[in-house]
Write a structure and sequence with these properties.
This protein has about 350 residues and is α/β, with parallel strands linked by helices. The chain has 2 domains: about 200 residues, 3-Layer(aba) Sandwich (Peroxisomal Thiolase, Chain A, domain 1), CATH 3.40.47; about 140 residues, 3-Layer(aba) Sandwich (Peroxisomal Thiolase, Chain A, domain 1), CATH 3.40.47.10. It is built from 11 helices and 13 strands. A 5-stranded mixed sheet has the order 1-7-6-4-5, sandwiched between helices. Strands 8-13-12-11 form a 4-stranded mixed sheet, with helices on both faces. Helix 5 links the parallel strand 4 and strand 5. Helix 1 packs antiparallel against helix 2 and helix 10 packs across helix 11. About 45% of the residues are buried.
Length: about 350
């Protein structure tokens, strides 16, 4: 049985409250239609986020940058985040870096070749034979995807240990000259951050077990979420129909998966849901609320940090790992990402 041993998070050095950010938004929108200016400020203020963290301070966020400059900013800022999250997780688990057999890194907000995991081999001191898997292009779903891949590695190799590290800097993708509603909304809901989850297939390890995992792919929905690569960098693609589409597909996403896992929604005590944004959270909350469940931890992570893409669900998972949860209780990890797809993991403490 594969178990989750520890989860740790790492925030960037810069942060601003929503109240502090709004003057910058007003300055950015100067010269645009007055209605659009008011709407941008309203969207930022009503996003349900108290504070956003970033690898660059707000004083520099709205400067003009080329795609090359944005990507260099991503590389410089995310490397220390990845290392910090991994070191914290190893300390929590009381593991040494050389005990890791697999390292999976997930990110979609910048490009690096070699990938971040290659740098961690040197900076953290991993073994020379550690197996690497860098994952990109999975968007917000990649935090769950990485855990899913690690689980399958470990299930096939008993007695091994793995690290999954999610590192994202959506702020590095900010488009200064794009005043579209999609860019305004994404600027309001996203923030930077990193997280690491450690897993083990050793028999004597403690932590919640992964009972099952799966993916659900929406047909003819590749237009709904992702990035469009342009000369100025990565431009967010976010269809406004995402919350309604999730609600429509929800029964097919959840119930067959739980049935296949020999459990029911009534047995799910803990919901580890990715906080994509206020509208998506409200949609999922209404669905689970009708079933007598809550996503309070998801809402709290969104309020404190915003959407940090793939890393965010691991911030939610950390909150559950820090709780005193009774043996036998079950939890469901759920996130959505480009494709359009849903990623699911069933946990049991």
């Amino acid at each position: 049985m594969v178990k989750i041993k520890a989860v740790a998070t790492q925030l960037p050095p810069f942060s601003r409250t929503t109240k502090e950010i709004i003057p910058y938004v007003k300055e950015w929108m100067r010269g645009q239609d007055e209605r659009l200016q008011r709407k941008a400020v309203k969207i930022m203020g009503n996003a349900g986020i108290d504070k956003r963290y970033s690898i660059v301070d707000a004083n520099e966020m709205f400067l003009a940058r080329s795609f090359e400059e944005k990507n260099k900013l991503y590389i410089k800022g995310t490397l220390p985040l990845a290392e910090g999250a991994l070191r914290k997780a190893l300390e929590k688990a009381n593991w040494s870096a050389k005990e890791l057999d697999y390292i999976i890194t997930v990110s979609c907000t910048g490009f690096m070749i070699p990938s971040i995991d290659a740098y961690l081999i040197n900076s953290v001191g991993l073994r020379q034979d550690v197996v690497r898997l860098p994952v990109t292009k999975m968007g917000c779903a990649a935090g769950v995807s990485g855990v899913l891949y690690a689980k399958n590695f470990l299930k096939a190799n008993p007695g091994k240990r793995a690290a999954v590290i999610a590192i994202e800097s959506p702020m590095s993708t900010f488009q200064r000259e794009d005043f579209s509603m999609v860019n305004i909304v994404s600027s309001a809901i996203f923030g930077d951050g990193a997280a690491c989850v450690l897993l083990s297939s050793a028999e004597d390890e403690e932590g919640p077990s992964i009972l099952n995992e799966g993916m659900y792919h929406f047909f003819d929905a590749t237009h709904m979420m992702g990035f469009e690569l342009k000369n100025s960098g990565l431009h967010m693609v976010l269809d406004p129909s995402v919350p309604e589409t999730i609600a429509e597909h929800f029964p097919r996403i959840i119930y067959p998966f739980l049935e296949k896992s020999n459990t029911t929604i009534e047995n799910i005590n803990h919901l580890v849901f990715h906080p994509g944004g206020k509208k998506i959270v409200h949609t999922i909350e209404s669905i689970f609320g009708a079933l007598g469940k809550n996503i309070d931890d998801t809402k709290e992570v969104l309020r404190r940090y915003g959407n940090m893409s793939s890393a965010t669900i691991l911030y939610v998972l950390e909150r559950f790992m820090d709780k005193d949860i009774a043996k036998g209780e079950q939890g469901l990890m759920l996130s959505f990402g480009p494709g359009f797809s849903a990623q699911k993991i069933l946990l049991e403490w």
